[in-house]
Design goal:
6-stranded mixed sheet; 4-stranded antiparallel sheet; 10 strands
């Protein structure tokens, strides 16, 4: 599966952005989808994941209550709605896929088919 993330940009602290990740090549609904981010000089970190049907969601503590992951299997797209953005949210955001049964795993190593990433910059 090929992934294309988009929707990043420059936003002021407290603002909102919605990221999209379009998938192609394989049956999108078969995959668990995840969002990750990587800030300069830091390791890639888990943000949120969503099950095949969208009924199960898991988010990192750092974004819980501010970010919402969702998916539209008819459009082969997963979204990340980001509200109340902070300067610490500045990073390149990536989407990725995982196969198998859904679990609340934040392991980067369990995900693959990484898209090219989209830059999110939050000014304070």
């Amino acid at each position: 599966v090929q992934l294309q993330a988009s929707g990043g940009g420059l936003v002021q602290a407290g603002g909102s952005l919605t990221l999209s990740c379009a998938a192609s090549g394989r049956t999108f609904s078969n995959y668990i989808m995840g969002w990750f981010r990587q800030a300069p000089g830091k390791e890639r970190e888990f943000v949120a994941s969503i099950s095949w049907s969208g009924s199960k969601i898991y988010s990192s503590d750092s974004v819980k209550g501010r970010f919402t992951i969702s998916r539209d299997n008819a459009k082969n797209t997963v979204y990340l709605q980001m509200n109340s953005l902070k300067a610490d949210d500045t990073a390149v955001y990536y989407c990725a896929v995982r196969q198998g049964y859904y679990s609340e795993s934040s392991s980067v190593a369990e995900f693959g088919s990484w898209g090219q990433g989209t830059q999110v910059t939050v000014s304070s």
